Structure formats: structure tokens, C-alpha cells
């Protein structure tokens, strides 16, 4: 006899078939169901017959496929004991149901059906449905219940049967300064896989994918978003099940010999978050955003305060720190409306460039003879907070720390040191290393009024081998989380940004300990449109750092208008990364206007529901609350037609009448003469009334704009 176990979200549901002594199997993941007499009447094996050429066993879609019994599913677990007993056959021992407010859970306990001592292991698979957001979270824990050590080569956080109609995959590729580049295609008959071995969540293959129906688009159709909340190596795969559907599997990628469990020891996987929606890519993204806001982000005092406008000094002065120059920079920043002044790299001793100094976390006596106090006092007198750049996980060979403790760096014995950006990685899993870093950082926070750490990580993990010769990728991530948690407990007011040469470490694992990502080192506004569109598929706007950079941009050499740069930076956690001392009067006034607009509308941008879509020659971003919305329409290529098609907003939800106003513009219309078109002029003055159905089905009459242009409109409910 089989038993059905069901978890319901607001719009989605899962159903698992359970029987003691058998592997639990997936019967449904997707839309929320009514009653289930058909599922209850028939077990999966009872519905199937043995096909020609198969093994003599009928199986469903297992929640944790095992290795060695010719099962047609990719193994979620691969383990052995010194090269022996590499076959497992996990079956259910028990399950339990939990109800913790908004989260409903089922916990399965599995054990190996073999009677051999070598098979002594226990697996706990936990499934949590966060009802308000419809996000399903899977975690797998393995415990060695035997007396001999157990080597784990692979253990997935979860294996999930996708709805059969989902045959496309979407994911991100990229590199430094070119993060979150969206890719989509049909899954080949051989399946699809993504592997990351960079030691961080990476620029190249961040830990997210979307499995979609071929007819799904931004606004309609079935989509499953999958995100692994882990800041290290990972793997994702879509493998064909024996009924033609795809099995999604994801987890931490383990390096050779990395995970060895002694008797009684356990390993817990990262969390795999899944979001099913029939409202297209936007629907799945919105559920991830809601889950992040409600369960992941940890704000001092329990609630997010308005996200302050930054000025980061990096692209203004680089390593050339001079107190008078920095004070002048702060004064000019405050004048345009900046609220937080962040001192970037170069403030500690032996740091004229990136070849020395990392690890020595105290102010440079030559650059700051009285410490950071005079600069911080000046910043505070201007009404701004003070923030500081640090890169605690790294060390330069040319530093006091490395000369005193060369063994503290991760390194492969017998091989030359492997440098990246002239630096090595500290083994922060060693207690003495973590204690050193906590002491230095805590002293900085205790002795100075610092409200913010920009926590950087400027290289991949290579030679990630600890003093015992064991691979230490995962240990490094856990040690990072522990250090961040320790600092935040000691200094709860301090906000921390996760930066890794830009967007190299963006995931919900590190976001539980931080409050912001540096989305990319690329401040070119045209590049940023694609980067921010990709990142916003996963993360809410309030955690995505978006800065107005210099022109020309240091990363690309291209120049855009101040208005275009401001429009793009508006849709994120806005900041400035340019030398505002050298702005002409027109650019200074423009920057001030964009910052003021951000302050006036950040309560919508950072709490509302985000959606996006494409036009014939650009993109649009919409953030909506029940009574107010902000819409950005960006033109990135020359229009292919003489007139702009009306802009429909299929994701617009709230009914009634709305007044639409044009509140800011970058660039010019593609038309004869300089006069504004009648439609834009009407939007720019008293605004136009539109019904919600008109916004969805008829569309806003917008003008064709030249490339690198933007229109920012607000919509307000009319009562």
C-alpha cells in the first residue's frame, strides 16, 4: 500500500508517494491540486509495465536516486569506503510533517537496505514549502552510522521531477564585468549540465537555472526557477527520466577527497530553492524575490530602512589616497545628495597598488597619520554615513601577515604558489586565521564609526588545499559564513556588501549574512542594462548595487550621457562611482535630479513587485505596488521602425484607473525637429489617465527614441 504526502503552497503543490521499505517517488510538482483520487488509487509501479530491454524493476521518479542498481536516473549520492562498497540502495524508514507558520514541511528518513556494515548510512531529506511565496526548499543531510570512514564523492541537495511540458532551459553565462548574460534553448536529448569549480558562485555560471515550457515567455507559461543558496562550487543537471520528463538535480560539487565522514559524522547540503509559476519568468522571479525579502534578508532592527545613496571612491581616486582630496570628494558628494561615503581599496599600509598590503588591516600611517578619524568626522559633519572596503579572505605575499604566517595561505605542498591579482587565499577555516581577521575587523568597527563594509573577494580559489593536504573549498565557504555571522553579532548595526570583482559571489547563501551585492565592476550603463536584467531575474532590486560611473566608462571606454547613466542606476541600490569634483555644471545638476528621483521613489523600487520585458529595440522594467509604480523603458539599439509600437504591460496587476506621468528622460526622440511629441508632452505635464486593461492590452503610446535613451514614468492609482 502506498501513501501520498502533499505540501501545498499558495499556487503550487508537491505530491510524494511513500511506502516504508521503498524509495519515495515524485508524483507531482507544479500547479496546486484539488482532490487527488487518481493519484490515490494507483501507485506508480501499478501504472507501468516492464519495457523491452529494461531491468526487471519498476520505478518511479525517486527523490534521491542511488548508484549501482542500473536505475535510469543520475545518482544523487555517490559514496564508498576506501574504494569499496560503492553501491547504495536507500529506502524509506519514516517521515514526519511539520507546520511552522508560513512554512509547511515534510522530512524523510532513508537508510540503506543492505545488511552489510559498509552500507551503514542514514539520509534525511527535508522539503519546506514557504506558502506565501510558493518557494520549495530541499536540503539533504547524510550521516555515517558505521564505524569505518565514508568518502562522499557527490550528494545532491535535491532531485526533482519536472512537469513533462517543461522542455527548455534558461541560465546565465558571463565573465568579469559581463555578468548575468541570459541564455535560453531547448534541452538536448542528452540533457543539460552546468558545473562551477571557481570556489565561489562565480561570474561564469551563477547557481541558478530556469526550466520552462517552450511557449513560456516573460509573462505567461509554466516555469520552474531553481537556485542553490551556496557561495562555492556547484553542479546543476537536467537528466531524462524514463517517461521523457526531465529530472532536475543540483548540489555542491565536491573536489577529489574533499568530504570524508568519520563514524557518526554528518554532511548537510546547501539549500536548493525552487519556484514554480504559470505566470512566466516574471512570476517565478517574483516568488524568489518575495522569499528573499521575507526569509533571507536580515536587517538590523528587523526591517529595511531606505537604502542610502552611495559614493564609492574606487573609480574616483583608485589607490591615490590623500586626505584633503577625499574630504573635498566627500563635500562634493554630499552636495549632489549622496548619503553614504565608502572608502575603497588603498587605505591600509603598503598599498600603492594591488601587489602588496592585503592582510594588514589597519590604517596606513603615511596616508592617515591620525587614522581614519578625521575623514570619518568630515563625512559625518556632511550628514553622510561612512563605509570601508576590505578583502579579509586574501593576503599578499608582500605583507606583514604573510611574512609572519606564510602557512596561513591555502597552498598545494610541493607546487609553486598560485597567485591571482597578486594575492593568495587565507585558510579561514583555521581558527587562528578566523580569530585574527575577526580581531582586526572588529577593532576597526569598534574604534571607528563605520556603518558599512564593502567585503571584496578578487580571485577564484585555486590550490584550495589546507595544511593537512585535504581540499578545502566547502570548508572555506562555511568559514566565511561563520566569520560574517560572528561580525554581525558583535556589530549588528554594520551592513555588509558581498563583492567578488563585481558579481562573482551572488547567491542566497551569502545574502543571509549580507545586505547588498556589487552587481558588476562594469559601470557602463549600456552594459548594465543586460547585467541588471539578468540579476533581477533572481534578486530583488534593493540588494543590487547600481552606480553612476564616469564617462567614458573605465571598463569599456564607452561614454553615455549622465541622464542615461542615472536612469539605469535608478533601478537598483543607487550609488555613484565617479569623481564628482570634475563634473561640469550640467552633469552635476543632472546627477542631483536622478538622486532626488531615487529618494522620492525608492520606497516603491525596493518593496514593489518587479517585472521586465522586451521592446523591439530595448527593454522595460516595471516595479509596482498597490497604489504606485515606476516604469523604465530603455532603448539600446536603433529602432527598426518609424514609430514605436504601444508598450503593453502584460504583468500589470491592479485594476482601476492610473495616472501616468513622464518624470525623467535620457536622450532624444528619433524624429524631425526638437519639439517633444504630443504624447510625451502630455505624459510630462499633467499626465494621462489609463485603465489597467489598457495598460495590459492596448499599451502606452511612446515615442521612438535614439539608442542609449530612457524614459522613466510613474503610475499612481486614481481613487
Automatic annotation (TrEMBL):
<feature type="binding site">
    <location>
        <begin position="344"/>
        <end position="345"/>
    </location>
    <ligand>
        <name>substrate</name>
    </ligand>
</feature>
<dbReference type="InterPro" id="IPR031704">
    <property type="entry name" value="Glyco_hydro_36_N"/>
</dbReference>
<dbReference type="Pfam" id="PF16875">
    <property type="entry name" value="Glyco_hydro_36N"/>
</dbReference>
<keyword id="KW-0378">Hydrolase</keyword>
<dbReference type="InterPro" id="IPR002252">
    <property type="entry name" value="Glyco_hydro_36"/>
</dbReference>
<dbReference type="InterPro" id="IPR013785">
    <property type="entry name" value="Aldolase_TIM"/>
</dbReference>
<feature type="binding site">
    <location>
        <position position="421"/>
    </location>
    <ligand>
        <name>substrate</name>
    </ligand>
</feature>
<protein>
    <recommendedName>
        <fullName>Alpha-galactosidase</fullName>
        <ecNumber>3.2.1.22</ecNumber>
    </recommendedName>
</protein>
<feature type="domain" description="Glycosyl hydrolase family 36 N-terminal">
    <location>
        <begin position="23"/>
        <end position="261"/>
    </location>
</feature>
<dbReference type="InterPro" id="IPR000111">
    <property type="entry name" value="Glyco_hydro_27/36_CS"/>
</dbReference>
<comment type="similarity">
    <text>Belongs to the glycosyl hydrolase.</text>
</comment>
<feature type="binding site">
    <location>
        <position position="499"/>
    </location>
    <ligand>
        <name>substrate</name>
    </ligand>
</feature>
<feature type="binding site">
    <location>
        <begin position="454"/>
        <end position="458"/>
    </location>
    <ligand>
        <name>substrate</name>
    </ligand>
</feature>
<feature type="active site" description="Proton donor">
    <location>
        <position position="521"/>
    </location>
</feature>
<dbReference type="Pfam" id="PF02065">
    <property type="entry name" value="Melibiase"/>
</dbReference>
<dbReference type="GO" id="GO:0004557">
    <property type="term" value="F:alpha-galactosidase activity"/>
</dbReference>
<feature type="binding site">
    <location>
        <position position="176"/>
    </location>
    <ligand>
        <name>substrate</name>
    </ligand>
</feature>
<dbReference type="InterPro" id="IPR017853">
    <property type="entry name" value="GH"/>
</dbReference>
<dbReference type="GO" id="GO:0016052">
    <property type="term" value="P:carbohydrate catabolic process"/>
</dbReference>
<feature type="binding site">
    <location>
        <position position="521"/>
    </location>
    <ligand>
        <name>substrate</name>
    </ligand>
</feature>
<feature type="active site" description="Nucleophile">
    <location>
        <position position="456"/>
    </location>
</feature>
<dbReference type="InterPro" id="IPR038417">
    <property type="entry name" value="Alpga-gal_N_sf"/>
</dbReference>
<keyword id="KW-0326">Glycosidase</keyword>
<dbReference type="InterPro" id="IPR050985">
    <property type="entry name" value="Alpha-glycosidase_related"/>
</dbReference>
Amino acid at each position: 500500500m502506498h501513501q501520498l504526502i502533499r505540501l501545498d503552497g499558495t499556487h503550487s503543490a508537491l505530491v510524494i508517494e511513500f511506502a516504508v521499505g521503498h524509495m519515495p517517488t515524485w508524483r507531482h510538482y507544479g500547479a496546486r491540486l484539488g482532490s487527488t483520487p487518481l493519484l490515490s488509487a494507483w501507485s506508480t509501479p501499478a501504472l507501468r509495465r516492464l519495457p523491452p530491454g529494461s531491468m526487471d524493476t519498476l520505478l518511479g521518479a525517486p527523490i534521491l536516486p542511488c548508484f549501482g542498481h542500473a536505475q535510469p536516473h543520475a545518482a544523487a549520492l555517490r559514496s564508498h569506503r576506501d574504494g569499496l562498497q560503492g553501491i547504495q540502495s536507500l529506502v524509506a524508514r519514516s517521515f514526519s510533517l511539520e507546520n511552522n507558520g508560513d512554512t509547511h514541511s515534510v522530512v524523510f528518513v532513508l537508510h540503506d537496505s543492505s545488511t552489510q556494515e559498509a552500507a551503514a548510512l542514514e539520509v534525511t531529506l527535508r522539503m519546506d514549502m514557504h506558502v506565501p511565496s510558493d518557494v520549495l526548499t530541499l536540503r539533504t543531510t547524510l550521516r555515517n552510522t558505521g564505524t569505518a570512514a565514508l568518502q562522499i564523492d557527490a550528494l545532491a541537495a535535491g532531485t526533482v521531477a519536472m512537469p513533462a511540458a517543461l522542455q527548455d532551459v534558461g541560465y546565465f553565462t558571463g565573465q568579469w564585468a559581463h555578468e548575468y548574460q541570459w541564455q535560453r534553448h531547448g534541452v538536448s536529448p542528452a540533457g543539460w549540465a552546468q558545473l562551477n569549480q571557481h570556489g565561489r558562485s562565480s561570474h561564469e555560471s551563477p547557481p541558478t537555472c530556469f526550466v520552462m515550457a517552450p511557449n513560456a515567455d516573460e509573462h505567461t507559461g509554466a516555469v520552474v526557477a531553481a537556485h542553490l543558496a551556496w557561495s562555492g562550487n556547484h553542479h546543476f543537471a537536467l537528466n531524462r527520466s524514463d517517461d521523457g520528463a526531465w529530472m532536475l538535480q543540483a548540489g555542491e560539487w565536491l573536489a577529489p577527497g574533499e568530504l570524508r565522514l568519520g563514524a557518526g559524522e554528518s554532511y548537510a547540503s546547501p539549500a536548493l530553492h525552487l519556484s514554480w509559476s504559470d505566470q512566466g519568468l516574471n512570476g517565478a522571479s517574483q516568488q524568489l524575490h518575495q522569499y528573499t525579502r521575507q526569509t533571507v534578508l536580515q536587517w538590523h532592527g528587523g526591517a529595511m530602512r531606505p537604502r542610502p545613496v552611495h559614493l564609492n571612491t574606487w573609480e574616483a581616486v583608485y589607490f591615490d589616497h590623500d586626505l584633503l582630496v577625499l574630504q573635498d570628494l566627500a563635500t562634493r558628494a554630499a552636495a549632489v545628495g549622496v548619503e553614504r561615503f565608502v572608502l575603497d581599496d588603498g587605505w591600509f599600509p603598503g598599498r600603492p597598488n594591488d601587489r602588496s598590503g592585503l592582510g594588514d588591516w589597519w590604517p596606513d600611517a603615511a596616508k592617515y597619520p591620525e587614522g581614519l578619524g578625521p575623514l570619518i568626522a568630515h563625512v559625518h559633519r556632511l550628514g553622510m554615513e561612512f563605509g570601508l572596503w576590505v578583502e579579509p579572505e586574501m593576503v599578499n605575499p608582500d605583507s606583514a601577515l604573510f611574512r609572519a604566517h606564510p602557512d596561513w595561505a591555502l597552498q598545494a605542498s610541493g607546487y609553486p604558489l598560485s597567485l591571482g591579482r597578486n594575492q593568495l587565499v587565507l585558510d579561514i577555516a583555521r581558527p587562528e586565521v578566523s580569530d585574527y581577521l575577526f580581531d582586526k575587523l572588529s577593532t576597526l568597527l569598534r574604534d571607528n564609526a563605520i556603518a558599512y563594509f564593502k567585503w571584496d573577494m578578487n580571485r577564484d580559489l585555486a590550490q584550495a588545499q589546507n595544511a593537512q593536504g585535504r581540499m578545502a573549498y566547502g570548508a572555506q565557504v562555511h568559514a566565511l559564513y561563520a566569520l560574517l555571522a560572528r561580525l554581525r553579532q558583535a556589530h549588528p548595526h554594520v551592513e555588509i556588501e558581498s563583492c567578488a570583482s563585481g558579481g562573482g559571489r551572488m547567491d542566497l547563501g551569502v545574502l543571509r549574512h549580507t545586505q547588498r551585492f556589487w552587481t558588476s565592476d562594469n559601470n557602463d550603463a549600456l552594459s548594465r542594462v543586460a547585467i541588471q536584467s539578468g540579476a533581477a531575474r533572481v534578486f530583488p532590486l534593493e540588494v543590487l548595487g547600481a552606480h553612476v560611473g564616469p564617462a567614458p566608462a573605465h571598463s569599456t571606454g564607452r561614454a553615455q550621457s549622465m541622464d542615461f547613466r542615472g536612469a539605469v542606476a535608478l533601478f537598483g541600490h543607487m550609488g555613484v562611482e565617479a569623481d564628482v569634483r570634475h563634473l561640469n555644471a550640467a552633469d552635476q545638476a543632472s546627477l542631483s535630479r536622478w538622486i532626488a528621483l531615487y529618494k522620492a521613489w525608492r520606497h516603491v523600487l525596493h518593496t514593489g513587485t518587479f517585472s521586465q520585458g522586451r521592446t523591439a529595440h530595448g527593454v522595460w522594467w516595471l516595479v509596482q505596488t498597490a497604489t504606485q509604480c515606476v516604469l523604465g523603458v530603455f532603448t539600446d539599439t536603433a529602432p527598426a521602425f518609424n514609430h514605436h509600437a504601444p508598450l503593453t504591460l502584460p504583468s500589470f496587476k491592479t485594476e482601476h484607473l492610473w495616472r501616468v506621468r513622464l518624470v525623467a528622460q535620457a536622450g532624444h526622440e528619433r524624429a524631425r525637429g526638437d519639439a517633444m511629441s504630443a504624447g510625451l508632452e502630455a505624459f510630462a505635464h499633467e499626465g494621462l489617465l489609463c485603465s489597467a486593461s489598457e495598460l495590459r492590452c492596448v499599451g502606452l503610446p511612446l515615442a521612438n527614441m535614439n539608442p542609449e535613451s530612457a524614459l522613466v514614468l510613474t503610475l499612481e492609482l486614481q481613487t
